[in-house]
Each structure stands twice: as C-alpha cells, then as structure tokens.
C-alpha cells in the first residue's frame, strides 16, 4: 500500500530530490502546512528562520550562486509574498534558478 503524506511533506520531498537541504522563511498562518512539514522532515531539510522575507529571498539566491543548487525561500500571503520580490528580481537579473513559495488564504 502506498504511503499517505500531506502536501507539505510531498513538497519537501520533491525539493529534497532537487538536492535542496535547507529552506529560508518566516512562519505565518498561510504557510502552517509547510511549517508542520518542516518540523516532521527536520532530519531531511533544515529550516532557517530569517528576520524578513527579503533576507530569505536574497539568501536563497546567494545559495544558488554559490552552490549551483536551487535556493528556496517562502513567505506568507500578502506582505510576505511582496517582500520576496527583491530576491526574485535578483535571480531574474542574473538568470539563475530560485524557488519562492507563497502561502494563500482559503478561497470561498
């Protein structure tokens, strides 16, 4: 029988298959599922808490530049997502891969 896992764990295992061993971000209500998954998978992927989403985004881009592996950062919906733009712009300008995960509020 196939193992049943939640979407957060599935996302982290996909990242792990891409050789991601850490992820930057800030907890928030819209990324709770990801936070629970990071706790459950802490032996596989390290969570690095940053003070601001922009710092996480720029750190993820710097990771990619230094290691060649995709850098990953996340932020909550709304302002958290907006603060990821600086890192996204840096990645676009330098034509390097980076992944930014944004939470979303439930839709009616």
UniProtKB/TrEMBL annotation:
Signal peptide: none
Keyword Secreted: no
Pfam family, one: TPP_enzyme_N
Keyword Disulfide bond set for record: no
Residues in Thiamine pyrophosphate enzyme N-terminal TPP-binding domain copies: 10-107
Gene Ontology MF annotations: thiamine pyrophosphate binding
InterPro entries, alphabetized: POXB-like, THDP-binding, Thiamin_PyroP_enz_TPP-bd_dom
UniProt keyword list: Pyruvate
Name of the protein in its database record: Pyruvate oxidase
Organism this protein belongs to: Lentilactobacillus farraginis DSM 18382 = JCM 14108
Lineage: Bacteria, Bacillati, Bacillota, Bacilli, Lactobacillales
